[in-house]
Amino acid sequence: MTASSAHPERSEVEETPPERFVSGDPYALDPSAVKTPPVGWKASSKFFGPGLIVSASVVGAGELITATSLGAKAGFVLLWLVFVSTIVKVAVQMEMARYSIVTGEGAMEGYNRVPPKAGRVSWVFLLWALMALSKLIQTGGLIGGMAAALSILAPLGFGPLSPAAVTIWAVVVTVIAIATLISNRYGLIESVATFLTMAFVLVTVLVVIALPFSAFAYSGADLASGLSLQLPIGAIGIALTMFGLTGVASEEITAYTYWCLEKGYARWSGPNDGTSEYRARALGWIAVMQKDAIVSWVIYTVSTAAFFILGAAVLHPQGLVPEGNEMILTLSETFSGVFGEVGRIVFLLGALAALGSTIWAAIPSWSRSWANALSIVGVFDWADARKRTFWMRVFIAFLPAMWLLTFLWINEPLLMIMVGGIAGGIFLAAVAISALYLRGRIEPALRGGRFIYIALIISSLAIIALGIYSAVTTVIG
Fold first, then answer.
1. Helix (H) or strand (E) holding 122
2. Cβ count near 387 (within 10 Å)
C-alpha cells in the first residue's frame, strides 16, 4: 500500500501513518503486538470491557430520571419501545468501532474525514463541537443527580434536596471524581465501571422483582400489554423522546471507539499489511467487539426497562410524574412506605450506583473526544502519547469542574438533561451518516456481511429521521 492516512482518497483502505508504530501505545498499530483472536463466546468474554464502560455511561441520570418519567407518563403501553429504541442504534455503534479497529483511528478522526470540509475540519466535526458545548449543560445534570441522591441519603443536617446539602455534595462528588480518575488508566476505569454496572443492574432487577409483592404490584397482563407494539396517538411525543434519550447516544458511540482501541482490539489486529492473516485477525477481533457490544446492549436495556417498569407500576397509577431530582425523592419515599427503611436505602444505593457509574464513565469518555478534537485542529500531535495523555488529564479535571458550575448556575437537572438530549439526537444523525460513509473507506473483505449492512441502513434511517425531527421541533418550538 502506498496511500498515506493524510490522503485517504488515494486508497479504499486507510494506511496507518508511520508515527503510530510505537511500542506499548494502545493507539499505535505495532506489528509486534498482534494477538490471535479468541473464538466463541466463552473465550471472547475474557476480552470484554469497552461495552461495560458504555453500559455504565448509558444508565444514569438519563435512564433513572428520564425512563422512569416516561414510564410514569405512558404506563406499560410503551415498554416495547425500550427494546426497539436501544437495539436500533447498536449497528451504528458497531460500525464505528469496526472502522476504529481497522484503521486505528478514534471516532473524532473518522468524523473529520466525512466531506465536505471547511478548511481543516469537516461539517460533522463542527456539529460535534456544537453538541459538545450543549452537553456541558446536560452533564451538569449528572453531578446534580448524584448530589441530590446523596443529599437524600445523607442530608448533612440540612434536609433532603436542600440547596445547601445538594451544593456541598455536588462539590464533593466533583472533587472525588477528578481525584480518582486523573490517573487516566484504562484498567481502573474498566474495573470500577464493571463493579458499578453490576451493582445498579442487581439493585434495579431486585426492585422490579419485589414490586409484585407490594401495593404497587403489576401483572403478567401488564407486561404483555407493554410488549404488544401499541402506539397510541397521544403517546407519540413520549415515544420520540424515549427513542432519543434511551440506549447509546452519540457520545457513547463516539467513546466506544476509544475504549475499543484502549482495550487492544486494533493493536492486536495489527497494521493492515494486505495479507490474509491480517484480515483473519481483524475480523476475529471485530467479532469479539460485536459480542462485547451485544452484552452491553443486554445490560443497559434490562436496566432501562426496569426503570421504565418502576415508573409505570409505581408512579403512573398515582398520576405522579415528578420532575428532576424530585423523582429520586418520591421513589425513595415510596419504597420507604412499602418496604421500610431497608427498601429506601436499597433504592438509593442503586440510584447512586447508576448515577456514579455514568459520571465515572462520562468524564474519561469526554476527555478523549475533546483531546482528540484539539489534536485535529492542530494544538498537538495525537500520535505523541505523552501529550495525548496530558491533554486527556487536563479535560478529566476541566470538564467536571465545568459541569459543576453549570449545575450550580442552572440547577434544573431535568431541563439540563433534555437540552443535551435534543442536541445529541441531532448529532446522532451525523454519526449515522459518518458510519455509512466510513464503511466505504475500508476494504470490502472487512466490512461485514449483507445482514450487517441492512441493519446499519435501517438503524441509520431511523436515527436520521429522529435527528430531522429533533431539528425541526427545536426550530419550530
1. strand 121-122
2. 16
Cβ–Cβ under 8 Å, residues 117 and 123: yes
* Mean pLDDT to the nearest integer, 54-72: 79
DSSP for 379-406, written as a single string: SS-TT-HHHHHHHHHHHHHHHHHHHHHH
Residue 118: beta bridge partners? Answer: 121
Strand partners of residue 121: 118
The residue that leads in pLDDT, 413 or 148, is 148
The string of pLDDT tens digits covering residues 192-241 is 999 988 888 888 888 888 888 888 889 889 899 888 887 777 667 667 76
Torsion region of 89: left, alpha or beta (phi above 0 gives left; psi -120 to 50 gives alpha)? alpha
- Contact criterion met (CB below 8 Å) for 120 and 377: yes
Query: Is residue 143 pLDDT above 80, yes or no?
Result: yes
- Look at the block and give the residue holding cell 469497552: 50
Provide the β-strand partners of residue 425.
none
Contact 414, 141 (CB under 8 A): yes
Reported as a pLDDT band with limits 50, 70 and 90, residue 476 is low
137-141, 370-374, 459-463 — most confident range: 370-374
Q: What distance in Å separates the CA atoms of residue 6 and residue 45, rounded to the nearest whole number?
A: 35
In this structure, how many other beta carbons lie within 10 angstroms of the beta carbon of residue 459? 22
Q: Kindly state the cell numbers that stand for 275.
A: 495479507
Burial of 255 (0-12, 13-18, 19+ CB in 10 A): buried
Which helix (H) or strand (E) is 302 found in, with range?
A: helix 276-310
Unique residue bearing C-alpha cell 430531522: 468
